Amino acid sequence: MTGKTITEKILSDHSGEDVRAGDYVEARVDEMIGHDVTGPLAIDAFEDVTGEDRELAAPDSTVFTIDHHAPADGVKAANNHNIVRAFAEKYGAHQYEINDGICHQVMIEEGFVEPGDLVVGADSHSTTYGGLGAFGTGVGSTDLGTTFATGELWFRVPETIRFEVHGDLPKGVYAKDLILKFIGDVGFDGATYKTAEYAGSAIADLPIHQRLVLANMAIEMGGKAGIVEPDDRVVDYLEHQADLEVSIDPDLASDDDATYEAVHSYEGADLEPQVAKPSNPENAVGVDDVVGIDVDQVFVGTCTNGRYEDIRVVADALEGEQVAPGTRLIVVPASGAVYEKCLETGVLEALVAAGATFQSAGCGPCAGYHQGVLGDDDVCLATANRNFPGREGSMDSRVYLASPATAAATALYGEITDPREIETERYDDHATADLGVVR
């Protein structure tokens, strides 16, 4: 019999069965996450399942965040916040407050997730945890509520599509460019209910914050999960960031003879910065195809690219400069710890001096809730993960997706700009180091 993929190994371990792609399993879940939008619905499901005999299967592994409407932008949002707070206090779950940050960032910063874990969340970007070598996936609120009660969930073991990048990445090309290229090549549904596995020397060289980007956006090609093989870089990151002593099972890697549904190979030297045109991430093109398009707003943030290193890239490019007249730059850090590090290192000061609006941690305008939603005919370039019609506001607005480097260059000139035009060594150093935020 042929070898196994990382996904098959994790789901075998968590089900106690020798499973392969296509098998159905009942698997033990290590961590469960809900937020202020999906949390109340999951709580309803939990109460339906448990009846009067209510108890969380694993309180220490159950986490809630208040991150989507944070701070509350209306009475309904405020009431949802209170539902989550009351439930977490009653049943002993972990609950993170306004400005603590986006669920995925908080889970990683606080050390909830380790390589080889199985993580579910009622948020589609729960695939993010694959950047640490875990199997993370989004589930519906009903499934999450059931998992709160049982600690287990059924899965169909996904097939795996492998994306390999060999050699070194050119200046100005980052993980966001890679994932947009992959999505553009396979299409928005090209990996539906599959694991997107990222490998090759260029991927192994990526710092953790960039690996998280690849895993995060697996869902934008339909992926059930996105995963990077864990290595010593993950061990060092978790020790530094979360004070965790982690040892990686040497078998937690795809076998050389594992079966893949498809393998897509790239030479790093051939790649260039990417921009996804409205209104789908699969509309990815080389930046040269869209250079010169005027923008009204640049948005830097989200669970994809709202980490300290991402924001530092923008601050370095704008230090001593000004945001282009007529262009708004909205910066929303992914967590309170990111906010604090930006404050401590002068990043916040540099951005505000350049004309940016720096806001409290959370999802911000990513889903069109508040903190910078777009009006009719507004054009935005964002470091977000989705650009569907109306995603960040008006149905008549248009959103382009790109890396923080491209966002920085665009904010400087008020039109989509190739980041290689403003590349500096300092800028590149900050983008390729694991700086972490450490609470």
UniProtKB/TrEMBL annotation:
Gene: leuC
GO biological process, one term: L-leucine biosynthetic process
InterPro entries: Acnase/IPM_dHydase_lsu_aba_1/3, Acoase/IPM_deHydtase_lsu_aba, Aconitase_4Fe-4S_BS, Aconitase_4Fe-4S_dom, HAcnase/IPMdehydase_lsu_prok, Homoacnase/IPMdehydase_lsu, IPM_dehydratase_rel_enz
The protein's required cofactors: [4Fe-4S] cluster
GO molecular function: 3-isopropylmalate dehydratase activity; 4 iron, 4 sulfur cluster binding; metal ion binding
Enzyme class: lyase
UniProt remark on cofactor binding: Binds 1 [4Fe-4S] cluster per subunit.
Lineage: Archaea, Methanobacteriati, Methanobacteriota, Stenosarchaea group, Halobacteria
Family: Belongs to the aconitase/IPM isomerase family. LeuC type 2 subfamily.
Binding site for [4Fe-4S] cluster: C303, C363, C366
Name of the protein this chain belongs to: 3-isopropylmalate dehydratase large subunit
PROSITE patterns (alphabetical): ACONITASE_1 (PS00450)
Organism: Natronorubrum thiooxidans
Domain of life: Archaea
Catalytic activities: (2R,3S)-3-isopropylmalate = (2S)-2-isopropylmalate
